Amino acid sequence: MEPRVLAGLVQALSPTPEDVGLDVGCGTGYGMVVLSKLCNTVVGIESDLGLMEKASTLLSHLEIDNAVAVHGTLCDGCLSEAPYDVVLMEGSVPEMPEGILEQLSDGGRMAAVLNQGPGLYEATLITRVGESFGSRVLFNSAAPALPGFDIAPIFAF
Description:
The protein is an alpha/beta fold and 157 residues long. Helix content is 24%, strand content 36%. The protein has 4 helices and 7 strands, in the order αβαβαββαβββ. Strands 3-2-1-4-5-6-7 form a 7-stranded mixed sheet, with helices on one face. The longest helix is centred in the middle third of the chain and has 13 residues, at 49-61.
């Protein structure tokens, strides 16, 4: 993800020093490092074991002790550490993943780039209030697709 897009998503999340954050598709750890300076605790999840190990090495090298990178399926999030106050999706998805939305705390925010079709990408902020979710488009910008978030084809006659 381009730094400008990442910065826009992080800014929209408005992380606070009390927040617990989730970085989905943390890659080599850049987004986790940024969130670790703004949040109390950060969990980064990465499906590519090599990238997850690079993220762990970066965190160790920078002596960041409030963030951890874990290996797992991106679309599952990291339920064991939920609920999250902020969730950063480091790539585009076709729709907001229901399983990760459910891991948001009351008042929690999730930022992602939604792929609305060929050439139409919208950085979007979702906010949870009780059992309801509100959304607003932040800006238009493309981002690489996160693996494992494909929409299942619908069977039709």
